[in-house]
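dumping these here so i dont lose them again. two proteins, back to back, each one seq then structure tokens. dont judge the mess
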Amino acid sequence: MPILEFLDPESVVQSLRARAKKQVLQELAAQAVRRLPALDERPVFDTLLQRERLGSTGIGEGVAIPHGKLPGLDRLFGLFARFDRPIDFEALDGQPVDIAFLLLAPEGAGADHLKALAQVARVLREPGMLTHIRAARDAGALYALLTRSTAPQAA
């Protein structure tokens, strides 16, 4: 089973185009509802925006993990996006963000939501993982990296 079982191959965006944080959140919401037809884009976007108002989900090293809980969602859902150019995300380390992992959870997810967030952070912080993600040539390669328990060794 993949390490991030809530990520599927169709939920990997190789090159997201956006110029600002709000636009990134809008595009992530749009991408998510394409894969979750039971949801509407506006509530997803509003949930992400409300979470960002509490503090940036930019965790450092060019990575953000926007997340939220939504009524009408029946499972954890992940969507990975690599940006075509870095965006100011008000990250903790002040660096612009070029990698985002969107995590959506059912409204009553409780600890499962927190466990999934920790799991995503662990995968993205594996030694060498961000270098491999930034070098990956296509969505399939990105999916393979994200669903393995350890990053591949450099050749």
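---- next one ----
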Amino acid sequence: MAIDPVRVTLVPRGADADTAAARQIILDLKLDTEKGTSSGPFPAFGRIGDFRKNETLFPFTLMMDGRLDMGAYASDAERQSKLDIRGAKLAVGGEVVLTDGDASETFVISAIAKLLD
């Protein structure tokens, strides 16, 4: 089994450029190149937001069950968000659902970059 560390960038489906940048999700994962999915389970780290706009940045840990943990200052409600990327096919154009309480939103994988060569 070949494993590649990758950085996955997701943007809200149908968002304009400004909205996509302010709400993009960037996540470092291990890609199982044979299956095309994230090899886990393990915590993974990422951020939501545009690095050029500090007010939009929110770092998080993706827990093994897909929950986004925003850290010590997050409310219980903020810890209930779930990104359905574990086991999803990781390919540019692929879709991943972010569930936040009763609401859900589809994000599209816009880029996958190898972290090591």
